[in-house]
Write a structure and sequence with these properties.
Strand order of the largest sheet: 6-7-8-4-9-10
CATH architecture of one domain: 3-Layer(aba) Sandwich
Number of helices: 7
Radius of gyration: 18 Å
Number of strands: 11
CATH class of one domain: Alpha Beta
Low-confidence stretches: 1-16
Mean pLDDT: 91
Strand content: 25-35%
Bound molecules: adenosine-5'-triphosphate, magnesium ion
Structural class: alpha/beta
């Protein structure tokens, strides 16, 4: 599959790829999680720095969602520890909107006082291009619109850590490209540490500062993406990294 589009960051927005001098946003130390006697995560170590956009690849069942749920605080490790910012939020593959609340109320759901105001909701909806749907019911949204609403709900919380579990997987190809671009822009503008779980190697290369592969319960591959923005699919460096990643994922590439 080829995704020929550019992530168009302004040149002055370009953040250098080395985040090692930024504060640590996530630190997982020897995290182990068992299910039915099997170690899905096996003494996993991971550090993510503030502002860093990290993509996490791995075969189905390799434990990506398990790790994300632990970092979100939705699950706890059996052994080891994970330090994460208090302000963190997750966007899942499905938008998980409350059907009985209008879109703007969904955006500020669980907030109180000024943080729950329509003004706040509208500001976030404007950022994701959904202002015109503020008063809509979730059931009337398209898949892409619903996922934008979920993104607005995440942004309104001003997370220091944004966890994305295959947020584009259920979308059609064109909507997916638009959402990828939007996520790239929003993360540049807001600067949270971001962990994006995806099966799409090209998506990972287009968006991420760093790409990880989860295998046998650990981070088996950890590579900084040195390609400058705006990034486009294709070109020798892009293709070489894609082939390396596919090989890591058990899909060896022909010479
Ligand atoms: N609550 C649970 N109870 C029992 N087993 C579980 C539970 N959660 C996850 N598992 C198992 O742990 C393994 C890893 O699951 P996980 O959902 O983390 O994989 P994944 O990498 O996200 O896969 P996919 O790419 O298909 O989403 C799987 O074998 C899964 O069946
Ligand atoms: Mg998963």
């Amino acid at each position: 599959m080829s995704t020929a589009f550019a992530i168009d960051f302004e040149a002055e927005d370009f953040v250098e790829a080395d985040f090692s001098h930024h504060p640590v946003a996530v630190h997982a130390a020897e995290v182990t999680r068992h299910f039915s006697g099997q170690a899905v995560l096996d003494s996993l170590d991971l550090t993510i720095h503030s502002g860093e956009f990290v993509a996490l690849l791995g075969a189905s069942g390799s434990g990506k969602t398990t790790l994300l749920r632990i970092l979100a605080g939705l699950d706890a490790p059996d052994e080891g520890e994970a330090w994460v910012p208090e302000a963190r939020t997750v966007v899942f593959q499905e938008p998980r909107l409350v059907q009985s609340k209008k879109v703007w109320k969904n955006v500020v759901i669980g907030r109180s006082g000024k943080a729950a105001s329509r003004e706040r909701a509208e500001a976030a909806l404007a950022e994701v291009g959904l202002s015109h749907r503020a008063d809509a019911w979730p059931a009337t949204l398209s898949g892409g619109e619903a996922q934008r609403a979920a993104l607005a709900r995440a942004l309104v919380r001003e997370p220091k850590l944004l966890l994305l579990d295959e947020p584009f997987a259920a979308l059609d190809a064109l909507t997916r490209l638009k959402m990828q671009q939007l996520i790239g822009e929003l993360c540049q503008a807001h600067g949270p540490a971001t962990l994006l779980v995806t099966h799409d190697v090209e998506e990972a290369i287009l968006l991420a500062d760093r790409i990880l592969v989860l295998k046998e319960g650990r981070i088996a591959f950890d590579r900084r993406v040195q390609l400058p923005h705006p990034r486009r699919a294709g070109g020798a460096d892009f293709d070489a990294l894609r082939d390396t990643l596919l090989t890591e994922l058990g899909v060896p590439q022909a010479e």
